[in-house]
Specification:
The protein is α/β, with parallel strands linked by helices. 15% of the residues lie in helices and 18% in strands. The protein is built from one helix and three strands; from the N terminus they run βαββ. Strands 1-2-3 form a three-stranded parallel beta sheet, with helices on one face. The longest helix has 12 residues. It is globular, with a radius of gyration of 12 Å. The protein starts with 8 loop residues before the first strand and ends in a 14-residue tail after the last strand.
């Protein structure tokens, strides 16, 4: 297992027009990003279940969360 920190990917909970995206859309973006980098910056706008089930092939992940979250932040653990 490696712990090298990769370049951060930022996921925003709003779209280009400033509209809040759904929790599902946000989660889809987070899951796609964790496959590319183990370093995520999540800018939340009330999304629920933020950071749930983040599994990365790189080993550990660094996740920075800013903004208000909805219900349930995290559920982040080692698989197995």
């Amino acid at each position: 297992m490696t712990t090298d920190i990769q370049q951060a990917i930022t996921i925003k909970g709003i779209d280009d027009s400033g509209r809040r995206i759904s929790s599902q859309e946000f989660e889809d973006k987070v899951q796609a990003a964790i496959k590319k980098s183990n370093n995520l910056n999540l800018e939340t706008y009330g999304q629920h279940n933020v950071g749930g089930r983040l599994i990365t092939a790189q080993g550990t992940a660094t996740v920075t969360i800013s903004g208000p979250v909805g219900q349930r932040l995290g559920c982040m653990g080692q698989p197995g």
